[in-house]
């Protein structure tokens, strides 16, 4: 009897040890299933890699970026040696983002993104996982590396590329032309920019003669906005930051060629004159708005002693963002017909005047009414419950051309010396309707994922904002017609 009890005790101990081991390795099965439902995989923290994890979660919520990566990497699938795919940043990034957006079946609740750091080292980026890094800097690393990868592709097909010459879509006439004239360019998808690519315009106007210098264009992949000085009793909004970004500034002691020519006409005997220096007004505008808009709120400031400080104030933002008043428009010449066209343009786009964005107070004077919608400043109670934009409630904004929907928010907790990045992002759409936009939000901190409300998202202290452009039905039809042409 003693031996029987002893044997049963040993068996029970072994069973308990096995059960404990299974619990440690896999956790309770019911909790695992409950956690996976409606959530996305988390990311393993490899040692201060929350900056990378938060950025990947934000990018995975932008379907246009994932679609562009799929088109971008289409060429690699036709290569004979597919073992080199892991050396491409675009391929590695696409696999991670597809897994985080639940487009690829994975049984893991937590993914390992160390493959991204490895491929970045091949692109000569040494990112240490044991030092504090910045999510916005990594965003620039990724976009610039993708541009380098695109530029490394051959712009023309080599004459000895037999594989390309044997493609069925290439006719005999095209092949014969290759030996006579210029080489055909590569397919268009290598020339296309990523959806975060946009252009800024720099406008210079002489205050004395009102002569406008040629408009200069510069590229951007994110808008880095400084936070203006706070005014007591007035909340800080995203519109304030955007208007501060494009606000005009005076540049003194600039040579004006037009003023010099006017001065020279009044001088006889061909006497030489000095270059006329005047004050110019410089203003930035958005010449080309991207499909995916990344907004970076600069929270770094400096004390009088020269030490870095972090600005913790809340900047109000909304689920939907209207960018029409920040778009550059070509100035219209003064003529009867053009004045009429300009009047129609101003009526359809309040807040613009002669290609220059104006302040909200000036926009009110132009329209005669106070604008009901301000990005981050309006009463957002109507935005809290649904994922649709109630355009009918705002006649002045009934047909915005550049309307954006919030997709993700990256938040930094802590100070300038140490902290932690977390992400609010939309849940992936249902597989039954992949083109829809989910109204469910998630809060993600490395490998921890939970559901969140829109109120919690809009109350966060944003560091990076990811918006995606919303096209109207008319715009969708025009895009489809362009694609068919």
From TrEMBL:
Residues 337-357 are annotated as: Disordered. Residues 41-470 form the USP domain. The keyword RNA-binding does not apply. GO terms for biological process: protein deubiquitination; proteolysis. The keyword rRNA-binding does not apply. One of its GO terms (molecular function) is cysteine-type deubiquitinase activity. CDD domains: Peptidase_C19F (cd02662). It is an enzyme of class 3 (hydrolase). It comes from the Eukaryota. PANTHER family: UBIQUITIN CARBOXYL-TERMINAL HYDROLASE, UBIQUITIN CARBOXYL-TERMINAL HYDROLASE 30. This is Ubiquitin carboxyl-terminal hydrolase. It comes from Alca torda (Razorbill).
